[in-house]
Specification:
6-stranded antiparallel β-sheet, 4-stranded antiparallel β-sheet
Length: 272
Amino acid sequence: MKTLILAMILIAPTPADDVSTFSSLCRFGDQWMISGDWNGDGVDGPGIVQESGAGLEWFLRNEPGSGAADVQFSFGPKGAMPVVGDWDGKSGDGVGVVLNTSKNLRWQLKNELELGAPDADFSFGASAADIPVTGNWDGRGPEGIGAVRNSGNNLQWQLRQTPDAGSPFTIFNHGAKGDGPQTGDWDGKNGDGIGSTHRATGLEWKLRDSAGAGSANRNFTFGNGKTDCQLTGDWNGDGIDTIGVVRIVDGTRQWQMRNSLNGGPADFTFTF
């Protein structure tokens, strides 16, 4: 793996209208906010994916705190959406991009955090209608994929247990039309659950421990629903994914993280 130490990226303040939500990811202008376990130590760190005319540039930090990026590389074309997951079931998360073609969603996944060709290239999901998601739905092996779409007044989830082409192993409804789908291991048991966020005055979270239909196990508000980007991850290495938001404060990105799944003030804050 190629590792470079870089200076932090600085961006100008971004108006609230430039906060765009895509699945569990969010972006300010041309920069995506992401998180992942980049070095396999069980703790998720932050990341920035910068979109430019040349494509996507990834800036990743191993620990959830201020400082320089630990890893930087280019992967994916302009217009693609970044995704994160442990595609090979080994140590640490890999990266990927999803392209919206004229017919479907095309996934290109890479196991290593470095420049190079994808390790997997396949189609899953419908073009335009679907939002890609990732998660370890069965708690075993590599992470799987999914596609979420508005269906009537609901979110319809189509999930696949492995990161490759094929039919979904389950299809169900959970969440309201227009909400942002979320994924994470909310209870530390048997794989990832699902959820949704709704943008009102506050950022409203509704999370379900399992990847299937049913009521939310947790409902709470954390973050500003008008201006914040939302993300999920295991910030303290306890095996449970929790939540965080990113907002622009005085021209820098401020990350506010919680180590529990409920409302309240951030447990820690940093800039990156």
